Each structure stands twice: as C-alpha cells, then as structure tokens.
Amino acid sequence: MTHPSSTTTTQPELVITRTFDAPRTLLFKLWTDPEHMKHWGSPSDLTVPHYEADIRPGGTFRLCMRSPDGVEYWLRGTYREIDAPNRLVFTHAWDGDDGKPGPETLVTVTFEDAGNKTKLTLHQTGFASKASRDGHREGWTSQLDALGDYVVRMRQPG
In the 8-state DSSP scheme, what is residue 22? Predict the structure, then answer.
C-alpha cells in the first residue's frame, strides 16, 4: 500500500512574552494612543516623528521611525481586531523605497492580568524567512524594552 506524500511548510513565527508593572487598561492604552506610541513605538535607537492611527477594526495605521542619521523607515497596517483591554490584532508591512507596502505579517498582542501587573504576549506570523523573523525579534525586543522604560517613567510621581 502506498501513502500519498505530504509536505508541510512551516513559516517562521515570533512569540515574545513580557510582564509589565502596569494594569492591563493602561498598557492597552499605551498601544492604542498615538501620543503614547511616539514615546516608545520604535527600537531604542530610533524616534517616532509621525504616527497616525484609526483604532477600529478595519482602521489603518502608519508610522515613521527615524534613525539618528535621518533615515526614515515607514510601516503600515490594518487593525483586524480590537478587544480592549485584552487583545489587538493587526497587519504589519514595511513600505518599500517606492512607498508601496511590502510583504505583510500578522501581529497579535494579548494582555493578561498577572496580579497588579500585565503579561503581554506578542505573536507575529507570516514571515518569508527566519532572517526576517529574527530581525523583527530584535526590533520588537528593543521596542518592548522602551515600553517598559516608558511605563516606569509614567508611574513615577511628580
């Protein structure tokens, strides 16, 4: 008896989990308020001079990250799901040199109570390669570090 052969193609995925010393409602707001995103919405060596978002299912966002030497990296996406303060799901695509979006990935961010803290899990799928996934891991890790620092600054008295 012969069995049909099957091939399984698995795309690389990214999962990062962090716990922040902030309630879920605050952390969710930091992810959905453009004024807050400007303070932490990029890896630590970049700034966010432009961020616009229509926070609703089907709404879009566009973000510019600027390097110290002035190089701009634009990214965009569409919100697929917004379940405040539990979950955000959105697409993520870097703009090419021609201003058109490149390959799209899907990002799911969940916010769970962890006592007086919040456990955040970021799950990104749809990478074309392990190298792309690894580059995003580096960027998200730095960005989540910046979010942690921003939370500390926000919660300091005075």
Answer: S
